[in-house]
Design brief:
binds zinc ion, mainly alpha, 2 strands, 2 domains, two-stranded antiparallel ribbon
Length: about 140
């Protein structure tokens, strides 16, 4: 049955709680300490926007070549590229992102977005055919 929960943010939201009474009680109690779905989404968006701004600032010194692809691909790929390069060019990291800087294929960034930093650099070195740039043995 649906229960109306007043969340920590002050908004009321309906939840279908299942299980024994004690389990439902525990779930309801926990839900009251969380934000409602709308606030959760808004918070996530704000966090993402802040992270994107931070990433852009982190790579502002880089001379990035324009990406090639459809408008949709370019828009998505540039978000991915900004985020990944910000991590790769972190002064604490000794990663060599030179190859990644050369990849201008929007689709490549989208296809490789889930790779780890090391794998991403290796894939970029392969894609741009720059020998030995990552120091990673394939
Ligand atoms: Zn709320």
């Amino acid at each position: 049955m649906e229960q109306r929960i007043i969340h920590a943010c002050g908004h009321e939201q309906g939840h279908y709680l299942t299980g024994f009474d004690s389990q439902q009680e525990r779930k309801a109690k926990w839900l009251k300490t969380t934000t409602c779905r709308d606030c959760f989404v808004a918070e996530k968006r704000a966090e993402e926007a802040a992270a994107a701004a931070f990433s852009s600032a982190a790579i502002s010194h880089l001379d990035l070549p324009p990406l090639a692809g459809t408008d949709r691909q370019i828009s998505w790929a540039s978000t991915i590229r900004t985020k990944r390069l910000a991590a790769l060019t972190n002064p604490d990291s000794d990663a060599n992102c030179y190859a990644c800087l050369q990849v201008t294929d929007a689709k490549w960034w989208i296809d490789h977005r889930d790779l780890t930093d090391v794998d991403l650099m290796a894939a970029a070195a392969q894609a741009t055919d720059i020998p030995g740039v990552t120091g990673v043995t394939a």
